[in-house]
Amino acid sequence: MKLQPWLSICSSTTHHQPPSPSISKLSDTTTNNISHTVTSAGNGWEQVCTISQTAATAAAITGFQKLSLETLTLTVSDHVNFLAVHNRLLYAAAGNLIHVIDIASFALLTTVNVAGSSSGSVKSVTFSNGNIFTAHQDNKIRVWKLTENGHHKRIATLPTFKDRLIRSVSPKNYVHVRRHRKKLWIEHHDAVSGLALVTDRLMCSVSWDKYLKIWRTSDFRCVESIKAHDDAINAVVAAADGTIYTASADRRIKVWGKGLKKYGLIATLDKHTSAVNTLALNDDGSVLFSGSGEGSIFVWGKEHGGNRTVLTGTLSGHSKAILCLVTFSDLLLSGSADRTVRIWQRGREGKFCCLKVLDGYKRPVRSLVADLGETASGSDPTCTLRVFSDIGDGDIRMLSIKDLNYPNSMSTHYWNPPLLMW
Question: How much is the CA Rg of the chain, to the nearest whole Å?
Fold first, then answer.
């Protein structure tokens, strides 16, 4: 899933007087009479149903909670291509700038100027041990450190010069990437499209070069490289047990597990009929969601009584490709090329419902990120979830989903019943 480039190497940091975000109540833009299809791969059945999507209807469905929504809008210099959250800060990349925004006040704190470099678009961001890792269009990964005075300092570029120098001596460290062209196996040779933290010691990266690489976060060394797919890899996620999932333009999702020494292929999930663009895992890693060009969200779970990953259902409603997914507790949010965001919820009986369809986006929704906000005190087990997205033309939307039931530990049993749809 190739995106337009926007990020380069950091050259300077500028501080701004935080602008006041515009505040508006979100109107209920849910489309009435939406037709959803859920298909069970195991039982061979398909159910189509129509739901009158009003707030009253959603609240009346047993196990589904009524959403209390409010939005804030903050305007930055240009349209935002990537969003990430860490330590109560929102990182919003736009053109040659990375805007750092305080989540609590939704105010712009700092703008990192990356003009003048050739690193190209940032495709992904992850965080580990106080470091910020960014994946770039120029085939490299860069590592940043937030200093005490609020500046972001680049401390490394992966693979490091030292690592490349040591490995360049031996011919066996080179691989053929194109005809008559070789590269070190520790190097990506196309855009790095995704990053994921596997453990506090390991990070993985995927690329349009079809490779999955494993990196040690302590010394920034590449320890493993796997030819994972037959076409560009668009997304990667990792579960708490170290299992890695990769999604590719070859229409496949692959599952990787750690052996005694190296990672190996556990399973290939090949039910999609077009390029797989995005992946998301539920809280305990027992359910995988995938979105692709056909506009449907596939739901994968463990086979009853076994460990095999199988397709358990399909969520339909978007009219174009699914570009991003984010999960929190029993909620799933999906962003699409149809310029809408859908909020799905799974009830106690394992039934999905599309609670809201949010429109007003001026461009395809390529990035969604969520952060747990205020939690209630005392006997009130509710919380607020903040969801950030780019509306277009430099406007960042913060959607506050209030009065959510505070998530308990999500067990595998909760996510395993057959998927049904109202």
Answer: 21
pLDDT tens sequence across 140-151: 999 988 888 878
pLDDT tens for 272-293 read 999 999 999 998 898 999 999 9
Strand order, beta sheet including 297-302: 276-281, 287-292, 297-302, 309-315
Neighbours of 30 (CB within 10 A): 22
Which amino acid does the sequence have at 250?
Answer: D
- Per the CB < 8 A criterion, the answer to whether 192 and 123 are in contact is yes
Sequence-distant (6+) residues with CB within 8 A of 397 are 71, 72, 73, 388, 389, 390, 391
The closest of 23, 134, 157 to 82, measured between CA atoms, is 134
pTM: 0.82
Domains of the chain, each with CATH number or no CATH: 12-421 (2.130.10.10)
Q: ∠360-364-365 over CA atoms, to 5°? A: 80
How many Cα atoms within 13 Å fall on the side-chain side of residue 194?
30
